[in-house]
Amino acid sequence: MGKLNKKEDWKTIAEVKHLDSRNRAVFPSKVAALLKDGFDLLQNQKGEIKIIPMSRVPVEEAWIYENPEILKKIDKGMSDSRAGRVKEISIDDL
Question: Which of 50, 59, 67, 73 has the most CB atoms lying inside 10 A of its own CB?
Fold first, then answer.
């Protein structure tokens, strides 16, 4: 689970006025859309609760996120691409 960043700013995007009789919160549709793949709930020492939207990763791609070296290489490749450090090659060059 993630950790709260003490320096971040929070803003209210919706209000949930009460829980139903089974202690469930009903989120407005604009919030529910952000949470459709699941979420983590975090609580800080002051008792504040933060909802962190999560996203699902296909099993065949999960190894990328479990391997810091591979993830670093992908990040470097994306950074190189954004900076224009790329060259065009043909399939015959491979």
Answer: 50
Distance of CA 10 to CAs 13, 31, 51, 53, Å? 9, 15, 11, 15
Residue 3 above 80 pLDDT? Answer: no
**CATH 3.40.1350 corresponds to the domain 10-54:** no
Domain boundaries in the chain? 10-54, 59-85
Structural contact between residues 27 and 16, judged by C-beta atoms closer than 8 angstroms: yes
Both tokens assigned to 42: 């975090």
- Is the pTM for the entire model greater than 0.70? no
Task: Give the CB-side neighbour count of residue 55, counting CA atoms within 13 A.
Answer: 6
pLDDT digits (tens, 9 = 90+) for 29-69: 999 999 999 999 999 999 989 999 998 889 999 999 899 99
In the DSSP assignment, the letter for residue 38 is -
